[in-house]
Amino acid sequence: MNKIYNVGIIGGGVSGVVTALELAKYGVDTILFEQKESVVNGPPFCHLHAGGNLYPDISDEQCRILMKQSIDMARLFPESIDKRPTFISIPKSEKYAVDIIQDRLDMLVSYYKTLIDEDPLNEILGSPDDYYKIYSKQDLIELAEQPNVERPNTPDEWISNTIKLVDYEKLKTPVTLVQEYGWNLFRLAAQAQLALNKTENCNLKLNTSVIDIKDVRNENVDYNWEIYTKDEVYRVNYLVNSCGFKTGKFDESLHINTERLIEFKAAYVSKWQPIPGLIPELIFHGERGTPHGMVQLTPYSDDYYQIHGMTENITLFKDGLIQSKTNEAQPQFGEDINQKLFRGWKTDDINTRTENAIESVSKFVPSFKSATVGGPPLFGAQQIPGDDPSLRVGEVSFPYKSYARSEIVKASSALTVANQIITKIQEEKIIPVIAKRTNQNSLLDCISKDEIDQLASQLTIERGYPEALSKLIIEN
Ligand SMILES: Cc1cc2nc3c(=O)[nH]c(=O)nc-3n(C[C@H](O)[C@H](O)[C@H](O)COP(=O)(O)OP(=O)(O)OC[C@H]3O[C@@H](n4cnc5c(N)ncnc54)[C@H](O)[C@@H]3O)c2cc1C
């Protein structure tokens, strides 16, 4: 109990670890508490969302933010980025118009160019002129005649492999191929944990649940907060609450009432027969929450595929999206969701929902009917600040002096949040002003690919998933 840490961070999800690593890089001493046995072990992520093209209903501004933040995070964690493109289509049954999507893509290309003008190292999505390519029905007919390519290198090769499998008569044309990449959470977790283990500036406390906090800012002691675990009390000057969907728990103990939503969702792991050439992520747009909500097929290595289906019998759940009540900052799920979230899924539920997911893909990819359950689902609950469930870019707020609350909606916002917290800590004079701020992190840069491969594989197996999920289909 003797040491006073500059910063105490509760929650070792992507937000907490990036904040800890950014502070450690500047020599600021921190203590990071994670209740689980490894970091970045909460709700999953698998899409980088560099442009927000999976969300036709969000604003252009949110799309630009997602692109910029995604590029920043990809530069920090390049070994977690799977550089396979995304095929975007709209079924004929859906309301969205193809030209709206294309207007937005043109806007994104010019924005991407400005990011590269600011810093050439931002060019991680390939050349801006190749950010997207559209394909008419005639193009698809011609590409369907081309031979398969085991490891495609050009947009046409990706589409040629895809279009032989997809029933494109069901889709509006043109369709689009865009350089939105995959994001491997196991590899990011491995790189972050290895970097945290190497730095002396962060005391990483795994398997350590914070049970309470005490505000001692007015108690005439030379620190601001006490953090209570089962066995000890830790003293810190600045407190960061990055508890994910449990953020409200500590707001409640500080008597802060905040509006927030929390949402439980799941994605399913399936195994298919080997196919002749790699395919991109496949998106079939649809209205969220209706029986024909969006279908997403995400390729992994060794014939594993992850599936999202934005309907209540696949990814979404009845009573899965809930709101904080008056006088209650932390919303509470019902029993069915708590069972899945904390105590495990029943085998029947895994099988039924994964089979529903396979069925939803096979409407557009008929041969996918032969896919089978490939492992347990990737699932979790996430926070959405405020009351708008379509928000995709949540960030950080500072409800009290010396207290930051991170509420990111997409993993890509983690570095932005870390930077905002560091600025605030300087303003409050908890740390001296940092002379030169940079987005590069040498603690992360010095972790080798081999180390990441090894730990990512170990974490994937420990968490009960097929080892294939720790690999990229397109290696850097
Ligand atoms: C099915 C699904 C798919 C998703 N797909 C994507 C995607 O493709 N791309 C994307 O960008 N985002 C995606 N998201 C959202 C993404 O998962 C979240 O935005 C992100 O994980 C939030 O990170 P976080 O660090 O804020 O919270 P979390 O990852 O939830 O981390 C919070 C951490 O705090 C710990 N904690 C909580 N309470 C305590 C305590 N008292 N003591 C100690 N530790 C504590 C938890 O164990 C947890 O590790 C998806 C979410 C879901 C549910």
Account of the 3D structure:
- The chain has 476 residues and is an alpha+beta fold.
- It has two domains: 4-43 and 186-257 and 389-470, FAD/NAD(P)-binding domain; 70-181 and 260-384, 2-Layer Sandwich (D-Amino Acid Oxidase, Chain A, domain 2).
- The chain is 30% helix and 21% strand.
- It has helices at residues 14-25, 60-76, 98-118, 137-143, 155-163, 185-198, 247-253, 335-343, 347-362, 414-427, 442-445, 449-462; strands spanning 4-10, 30-33, 81-82, 86-89, 132-135, 175-178, 182-183, 202-205, 212-215, 225-228, 233-241, 260-271, 281-284, 295-299, 304-309, 321-323, 372-385, 396-400, 403-406.
- The strands form three sheets. Strands 4, 5, 6, 12, 13, 14, 15, 16 and 17 form a nine-stranded mixed β-sheet that branches. Strands 1, 2, 8, 9, 10, 11, 18 and 19 form an eight-stranded mixed β-sheet that branches. The protein has a two-stranded antiparallel ribbon with strand order 3-7.
- A hairpin with a 4-residue loop joins β14 (295-299) and β15.
- α1 (14-25) crosses α10.
- The relative contact order is 0.19.
- The model has no long low-confidence stretch (mean pLDDT 94).
- The protein binds flavin-adenine dinucleotide (FAD).
